[in-house]
Amino acid sequence: MSVVVTGATGHLGRLVLDSLLDHGIVPSDITALGRRTDTLESYATAGVRVATADYDDPATFDGVFDGADAVLLISSSAIGQRVGHHSTVLNAAKAQGAGRIVYTSAFPGLVVSPEHEATETIIKEQGLPFTILRNAWYIENYSGLVEQARTSGGIIGAAGDGRVAGATRADLAQAAATVLTTSGHEGATYGLTGDTAFTYSELAQVIGDLVGREVTYTDMPTDDYAKALESMGLDSGTAGFLAAADQNIRDGLMAEVTSDLSDLLGRPTQSLKQGLSA
Ligand SMILES: NC(=O)c1ccc[n+]([C@@H]2O[C@H](COP(=O)([O-])OP(=O)(O)OC[C@H]3O[C@@H](n4cnc5c(N)ncnc54)[C@H](OP(=O)(O)O)[C@@H]3O)[C@@H](O)[C@H]2O)c1
After folding, report:
1. Which of 92, 122, 200, 225 has its CA 20 to 30 A from that of 209?
2. What start and end residues bound the annotated signal peptide (predicted)?
3. In this structure, are residues 34 and 58 in contact, taking their beta carbons and an 8 Å threshold?
């Protein structure tokens, strides 16, 4: 079977490529798409087919989906431009006769959700067999806090007592590879979460265990948190986005735990501590 992966040069995409190879897919049956040629070249050396493709330049997708049994559309990282980016991929995949689409989406109701919901609608209207992978918030989104807490002894946020059913990219990538390489997933929408949801106070405890000192969580109102992030050097757009995501957590929108991810993996999901230690 042949598989094409977009966003293959990113954190998740590279893990998906590794997992496809672990699943025994012949390297030449995998096509990796992205912009970063140095990353693509490292996979080309391993026998993976690679192509430089830019969502802003539809012509770069000419021919890349010819004969593809399955396409993994890893959502674009360009917030605000995602629907156009995804449409470029979906139009090219359909025109070139791709067999099915697997899309990395998000849970509904979040600050990031509107572009994902619009993409899911396009996929369903387009009519190709599809599988939607609604990926949880990555545990690795908190990796940067470990070093910060090592020196400061604290983390800040605006999530209150809200819980995050986070999952590691490695688990989400392995699940994507399973969906791409096995049958029975057509029309499915999987909500892929970790097996356990944690609060930011629990996150602080786990980080404390990792750095060997007490780490406390200080909760702030959403606007104050956004200002605090800006004072730490983030641009206002990124600060506002992260504060809105914490507000989603406070509102309980990332708390739901499902068994979809562990079912696809055939084992428990990686823990918060494993994700932060990687
Ligand atoms: N669930 C979560 O917590 C969470 C958090 C962050 C992001 N996400 C979403 O999940 C996706 C995958 O996560 P990730 O960690 O792998 O993100 P990432 O490391 O930022 O990777 C993003 C990928 O998108 C590609 N890309 C961006 N703009 C492009 C363009 N104009 N044309 C072609 N390729 C383009 C990048 O290609 P190059 O590297 O070649 O430029 C890269 O391969 C993200 O893109 C985002 O939609 C989810």
Report:
1. 225
2. none
3. no
Q: Which of 148, 173, 245, 182 is nearest to 19 (CA)?
A: 173
Dist. CA 214 → ligand 1 center (Å): 34
Residue 4: predicted pLDDT: 98
Ligand 1 first shell, C-beta below 6 A: 7, 9-13, 34-36, 53-56, 74-78, 104, 135, 137-138, 141
Separation of CA 73 and ligand 1 centre (Å): 10
Q: What is the pLDDT of residue 175?
A: 98
For the CA of 56, the closest atom of ligand 1 is 31
Q: Which portions of the chain are predicted below pLDDT 70? A: none
Each residue's pLDDT tens digit, 229-249: 999 999 999 999 999 999 999
Domains of the chain: 3-135 (3.40.50.720), 137-167+193-257+269-278 (3.90.25.10)
pLDDT of residue 106: 98
How far does the centroid of ligand 1 lie from the alpha carbon of residue 7, in Å? 6
Helix ranges, 78-157 (H): 82-95, 113-126, 144-152
